[in-house]
Amino acid sequence: MTHPQDVPQRWDRKMQQRLARGEAAALGELYDRHASLVYGLAHRVLGDEEAADQITADVFAYLWQHPDAYDPRTEPLRAWLARIAHKRAVRRLRWDEINDQKERGVTPTPQQEAASEERIQALAADARADYIVQSMPAPLRAALELAYFRRRDYRQTAVELGITEAEARRRLRLGLQLLSTAGRMPDGRPA
Amino acid sequence: MSMGPYDHALLQSLLGAWALAACSPEETAAVEAHLTDCGTCAEEALRLRDAVTMLHPQEGLDLAPTLRARVLDFARLRRRPQVPVPGWAAAYDAETARLDALLEDMGESEWAAPVTLTWYDGDATATRETSVAGVIGHLVAVDGLPALALGLPDPLRLGGGPPGAPLTSPVERTEAIWKQAGSEHRVQQALTPEMRRRHAGTVRGVWRDQNYQLIRRASYGAATVADLNVPYGPGLALPMRDAYADRAFETWVHASDIADAVAYPYDDPEPRHLHRLIDLAVRLLPGALADRRRAGRADPPAELLPAGEEGRSLHLEIEGEGGGDWFIPLDSPAAAASRKGEVAHVALEAAEFCRIAAGHRAPEEAAAGSDGDRRAVREVLYAAASLSRL
Q1: ipTM confidence
Q2: Among A19, B242, B251, B314, which has the minimal tally of Cβ within 10 Å of its Cβ?
Q3: Distance between CA B264 and CA B241 in Å, rounded?
């Protein structure tokens, strides 16, 4: 997955140091900046407020307890948090599914198991897609928003953004190319 | 086969627009014809069309306002902070975060809403109309008082500004920042929505930075700064811990002013914080009562008692979570007060008491149950209202 270049790396590094020092005020600032991202991803996967609240608490508590688990040199904090939140939400979804089957006393057929796995993968990909849209460079996002949500053709998109038609075509194609990686795991394997 | 004016490179560049149905009919036909005999483009076209199905409107979720406290408490149970936010700064931390979340949830057009500030001046309600940005500017200006006492930069001097001693009266500071920033509702109305949003964004950024600085200083300074004196205008000062409670109270009051202006719900502070805010207001009451007497707005006390001596008292019972019982000395600010000298009893809800102290409820209209010395009841409620200011 590509990372936007406008990530404030200095902020991430300082935040990590402050968390490592055990500064409670830093935890509050971290929440203020990133809670809606973490919560939004968890909510997209789980579709439930209480479960999303719990994942949010887990993710922030995890970083607070293990500030060294995040290395500011390898990726932006935002991406790291998104990854952890996503992983935990999907794990929770699987767990809920298994528990649900246990409670109902059913043993799923291989077909049912495959269908349930497919549903989980689809929800996981949706959440990844959301994250990609949110974190793609703003010019790409703006072009996609005009063309998809506001039904502009690429020529109108070019006029509204004050760019050439060729640039509008390029942005729409690149934006979708980024988005198409959502179905894959970060290392390129299909999900 | 003729591709007309279309070559492979152009058709390939159209794939994103094609997948989004954002091409002309002629271009669409040309792309689709091309896909039947170009494998690379066909493969990409399929992939991009799948990607389109993953676009959906952002849900615009509003996080529960109580989630922040729950998440932070949960984390702090798992690992004790080496540098905690001291108890006296916790309400300020929580209230500034709540206001920031309200600003985040507000729609762009709502930044244009006129906000009415209300306080009690002497014996009548005073009002002043400003913008959302004006309210935030007011908070920046007065939060600047504890900031100055902690050696942080004066937000009134961000653009350089004239040399000389910093202003210390909350009202003067507010007028100065409004003049500097052009936050008056009238001025704001004259701006384009884009400029208004930018102005508000800037003011909000300055405010939030200062909040964070104040919370950090309190955390690292804790015991050594808690009792520092914060000048609050001529003849007035509060110890740092009380200044933070005062700022938390004002942040809450003005956040509800903004919420009212844009018709958003806004809750009361958490009980543990509410209690601290009420306690500060109650401790300021004897002084406020003495001020009103000096100004001829309240009758002189029956007798002036030497400091520490037990005199008449009013029993203030604040109901609900965060409330409690307080005894207010009626004869002189320094006198001791307890149940023994009780001559009057007032009972009211925590939120109602705060509305009076904020100047949002006229004392004579307060929903308060009382018995005993009616004059004492009246004087204490008016003294509470006189704690409010612009």
Answers
A1: 0.85
A2: B242
A3: 31
